[in-house]
């Protein structure tokens, strides 16, 4: 039932988690991996509510029981239900939808089947998003927590997206480990030979608060695994990962998913890296054509010195995958070198351009890295580029729903 295991080979299970739980309950089998134990095999837990009616003054709810198939749903009077949170959510969803449909919030004595069906879809979506949120948090290696929220439509988690914390290096590409580190007494206050950035005649990137003080376009060289300094060295910022709690939320103006911060972020603070698969630019060209046909692309050229490699965050990525574009962004891109000093393979880090308040959406402008003052191209523009001057012209690509989908390199 749970997939085959032959000599280390495995195949995907075609049934959903919930179908498998249902099968367990029906067959009276316990399975720790599915959370069905001997103890709770006969427990009744409300998974979500499917319908509502009022008979005389008594309210009833149609209950979907966790681990039981829909055919076992039962109508229960309100006083039988101890699930305050589920009840609250059900009424919140019901009222919001009543207002949307009929401009009133008081529930009728019976829900029309279409509305009841909507509430079931909403509950299933919440369940799927919760599971996705757990999955994302299980995979993150950074401090900042990730929450997921969709109060806008019925879209669930993206179908094919794998959360990663650092670059996934494609075939035939190697990241060389740095061979030397610094020997400073104090990397910020008493740097020897300019500390790690000094070794390549660059400036020290941070102040004592970890805020970047370089102009955009200047590279950041952080301390690395060979340095004598410790974890608390002021020159270790990007390598510590995302530290803010962030929320992936559904935008209400057709831009798909977006990201907002749940905490205040001070100006010039590191927010997140742009990670994905590193591929060659030829491979990016090939994929770009496919993504283009699909109407979405997440390609990001590493063109700090020369255009050899590209980051593709379409399938493997972190929370930056969901950050939208803006012409007036609050995030700025920097090229960062830590354990790999190959200038063709910088890490891409986003820093706050201003104070970003809790609740604000995070955005960046794909056009800003190379300067040149070009404004991004909107939807419908062709991917060609007549202006030969700047190297870094990125063309904004839009999906059918008019949500920003990523970037394509200018082909000039
Ligand atoms: Zn140092
Ligand atoms: Zn160092
Ligand atoms: Zn250091």
TrEMBL record:
Domain SET, which positions?
244-367
Write out the residues that bind Zn(2+) 3: 187, 223, 229, 233
- Where is Zn(2+) 2 annotated to bind? 182, 196, 223, 227
Positions binding Zn(2+) 1 in this chain are 182, 184, 187, 195
Q: Report domain Chromo positions.
A: 44-92
Recorded hits in CDD domains, A to Z, give: CD_SUV39H1_like
Main localization category: nucleus
* InterPro entries membership: Chromo-like_dom_sf, Chromo/chromo_shadow_dom, Chromo_domain, Chromodomain_CS, H3-K9_MeTrfase_SUV39H1/2-like, H3K9_Histone-Lys_N-MTase, Pre-SET_dom, SET_dom
Look up keyword Metal-binding and say if it applies: yes
Query: Biological process GO terms, please?
Result: cell differentiation; heterochromatin formation; methylation; negative regulation of DNA-templated transcription; rhythmic process; rRNA processing
Protein family according to the UniProt entry: Belongs to the class V-like SAM-binding methyltransferase superfamily. Histone-lysine methyltransferase family. Suvar3-9 subfamily.
Name assigned to this protein = Histone-lysine N-methyltransferase
């Amino acid at each position: 039932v749970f997939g085959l295991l032959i000599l280390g080979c495995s195949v995907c299970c075609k049934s959903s988690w919930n179908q498998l739980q249902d099968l367990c309950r029906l067959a009276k089998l316990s399975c720790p991996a599915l959370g069905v134990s001997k103890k709770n095999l006969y427990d009744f837990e409300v998974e979500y509510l499917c319908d509502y009616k009022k008979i005389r003054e008594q309210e009833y709810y149609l209950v979907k029981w966790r681990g039981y198939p829909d055919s076992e749903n039962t109508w229960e009077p309100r006083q039988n239900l101890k699930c305050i949170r589920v009840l609250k959510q059900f009424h919140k969803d019901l009222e919001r939808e009543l207002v949307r449909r009929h401009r009133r919030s008081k529930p009728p004595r019976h829900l029309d089947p279409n509305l009841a069906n909507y509430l079931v879809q909403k509950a299933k979506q919440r369940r799927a998003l919760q599971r996705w949120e757990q999955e994302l948090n299980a995979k993150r290696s950074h401090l900042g927590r990730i929450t997921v929220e969709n109060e806008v439509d019925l879209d669930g988690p993206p179908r094919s997206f794998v959360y990663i914390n650092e670059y996934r290096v494609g075939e035939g590409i190697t990241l060389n480990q740095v061979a030397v580190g610094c020997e400073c007494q104090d990397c910020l206050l008493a740097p020897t030979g300019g500390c790690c950035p000094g070794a390549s005649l660059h400036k020290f990137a941070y102040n004592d608060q970890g805020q970047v003080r370089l102009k955009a376009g200047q590279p950041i060289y952080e301390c690395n695994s060979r340095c004598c300094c410790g974890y608390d060295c002021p020159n270790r910022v990007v390598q510590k990962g995302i530290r803010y709690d962030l929320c992936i939320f559904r935008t209400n103006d057709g831009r798909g998913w977006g990201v907002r911060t749940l905490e205040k972020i001070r100006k010039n603070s590191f927010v997140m890296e742009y990670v994905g698969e590193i591929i060659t630019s030829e491979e990016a060209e090939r994929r770009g054509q496919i993504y283009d046909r699909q109407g979405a692309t997440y390609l990001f050229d590493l063109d700090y010195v020369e255009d050899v490699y590209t980051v593709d965050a379409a399938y493997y990525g972190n929370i930056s995958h969901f950050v939208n574009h803006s012409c007036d962004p609050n995030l700025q891109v920097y090229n960062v070198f830590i354990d790999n000093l190959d200038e063709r393979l910088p890490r891409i880090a986003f820093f706050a351009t201003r104070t970003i308040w809790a609740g604000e959406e995070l955005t960046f402008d794909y056009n800003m890295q190379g300067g040149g003052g070009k404004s991004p191209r909107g939807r419908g523009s062709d991917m060609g580029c007549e202006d030969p001057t700047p190297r870094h012209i990125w063309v904004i690509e839009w999906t059918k729903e008019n949500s920003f989908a990523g970037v394509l390199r200018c082909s000039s």
